[in-house]
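Batch manifest, entry 17 of 40.
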Amino acid sequence: MEWFSDGDYWLGRMVFQRGLALVYFVAFLSSVNQFRALIGEHGLLPVPRFVAAVPFRRSPSIFHLHYSDRFFASVAWTGVALSATVAAGAADSVPLWASMLMWAVLWVLYLSIVNVGQTWYGFMWESLLVEAGFLAIFLGNEDTAPPVLVLFLLSWLLFRLEFGAGLIKVRGDPCWRDLTCLYYHHETQPMPGPFTWFFHHLPKPLHRVEVAANHVAQLGAPVLLFAPQPVASVAAGFIIVTQLWLIASGNFAWLNWLAVLLAVTAIDGARAAAVLPLPEPRAFAAPPAWYQGVVISVTVLVAVLSYWPVRNLLSRHQVMNYSFNPLHLVNTYGAFGSIERVRHEIVIEGTDEPEISDDTVWKEYEFRGKPGDVRRLPPQVAPYHLRFDWMMWFAAISPAYAVPWFAAFLVKLLDNDPVALKLVRGNPFPTAPPTFLRARLYRYRFTDRHELRRSRAWWQRTLVGEYVPAVMKAPPAQNWSGGEGPG
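Output type: structure tokens
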């Protein structure tokens, strides 16, 4: 068996590495912009409180050694700078050991952030980035032939991502089996995008085709990734097309872009060069013996750690998006095992009036990404990740998601806290804090074409009830019973 490819996969490796560096760039940048409000010393879920309660062995991070907001910012900005440098090709301009070190530093820095990020970093694409980033350390640079074993591990990662998501669907909500889930999902997904309204209004037969194509992409194509070429390339191409469809239809941070990059590594570059005007692969030097030993050792490690996700895939009680070890290596993945039929949104309102009456004027806080103003077209956010907006979607499904942090957020709004206010799109009380806040639960649905033409509104909303009753500066945790929830 040849463990290093002469030239068939050099292009896929280059695209994957440059693309992964850009994903790292976006991930670190989103941490720079949001950490103070979410996990900073005075954030909603402070890191110092977390590291005091959780030992290093359960959540390894450099922030167990020291934490301050300034130090965290330094770490995140280092990640931004290093990932930008790698995306520009710096890792291909240094010796192999130095290239691997650059990728290893990116991995350690982001793993350290994820492991203290708590709720805000519990999304599947965070673990996916950590796992993909670990494998990237051992892919080599342009002076080294692509290691076939690491390419296989990347396909194994893509298989678990897609196949796990496919299994959780067919084992879960019956609408995936009768092909009707996309009657609802475009409208109820966590973060709609600028084209989601149009996807929602596609004919129902086409929605059924979407679901069927999703099953093929997640249950059929991943198996073919391990078939001989060109079958593997065709399977990877089909996965890429479906991921681009998902990118157009919603905002899922960098999840879909990472899936595209993983699929690119399975494409046979030699066959692609036969139909595309691509440069000839360069001649590669023989890989050093130490590097071959490292690649084999990593392959053995992943093989051993694969026991737990394989067992989970075979289980009738499959869990999704779970890490079996604190390094987030060889995880299990899955998404949307159940689909919401109705969209609920939490709308936070404030007033500066000294007393509440039937005539009180309430002003809404508008969020950066999640629906609020019915006339605002949902923005394109991905691959950037608005962590607070995503958690607000979960909180609308059940108040239990919001218990650890929602009351603290209301307290900060009552103080006009400038850091917390960066989580929202604007402050309706720029000169003085509000005297009262409340949160209300609404049912949102997309307008139809006639309603859009008449009202110029993308959404229609109906009040469901109080989520949090009106509260003053006194700690709202004493006044909040958790709301009615969405039913």
